[in-house]
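Why does residue order matter? Because the sequence determines the fold. Keep that principle in mind as you read this record.
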Amino acid sequence: MKRVVVRFYARNNLGDDLFVRMLADRYDARFLIETREHNQTFDQHPRIVQRAPRPTVLERVRARVGRPAPARAGVSVPTGADLLVHIGGSIFIEHPGSLGYWRAERAFYRSLTVPYVILGANFGPYLSAEYPHLIGSILRDARDVCFRDEASRAAFPDVPGIRVEPDIVFGAAAGLAGTEGSGDAGPSGGTATSGGTATSDGTATSGGGVVVSVMDFAGTHGAAAGSAYETYLVDLAREVILTGQRVRFISFCRFQGDEAVIDRIQDRLRGSIPEGSVDSYRYRGDLDEALAVLRAADAVVGTRFHATVIALAAGKPVLPILYSDKTAATLDLVGYEGPRVSLASIVQGRRVGADVGQWGHGDLTGVASRAQAQFAALDRLLPRADADA
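Structure:
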């Protein structure tokens, strides 16, 4: 059995975790992953080996004094590994002061003695003229590169062979459109809380309602944007509840601040809405549980990119909140004709109401099969384990 090192965002992020499970479900190989937080889904998968990364000397020293270490380039590739798969979405972004990290990334890829592939990614935004050259050199040496948007490929006209297919999660459309699951997610892998409270052991009431995906924009776009966005969701939740529907907020990633956003919103709603009209689900590593929540939804407000993708794949009415070009490109791909809410418009005070009947669907004809073509090169490198082999 071939041994495949999988590099991904290993912080219990629902979208990234779904990428990894799709890989492990598809191929008969042993997948070696490093996770900084224990993940129930990976632990239970027969082809995934989950381990914590060994801390460096700098990381141990900084941990003793309570200071975080800088991001570490690369990933451990054990002796005997056959392949490295780097799978993710927004994995090529240049943040202020990060050029040193990306130079180390290029050195890591140049040092590899195994082939590597890069799947599902998009490029940018970036800040410096050097950055595209660093990424271009990484892409040029890869066995295969498949982006999820044409703009990313266009940024590297001198790198031959780059492919473009829809986001990998669209490839799971058949399963996501299933009706199983009531949405009654309990506290085993995630946390469901009811009545606007933030306890860790509550149980959600039954039924789908309007599921609202959140993000912490205060940390990425500034305090003003974060405050305006959270106010918008508070107002939207109240409008939805007035129509007689229930609201469930969903966290995709605790590490990135989703749960803190939910807590703040629930605090603001408490006392002003009927008891039991709002609850929340907090993803902690149980993918089946989280996907059941989204499948059971009557409609979805998609701030997280993959909340929008999953809602479209599941055939749900969706109100997308756009904070980057990647969401707009995906909506255009599937012919989405409903309302779109940009973070910029929220900051400017423009509002889209809670008339779920006006929210849109997508036309996924051919999209799921194209998304599965993200794996075209891997299909030649690894034996299939699923029924479609």
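Confidence is low (pLDDT under 50) at residues 179-189, 194-206.
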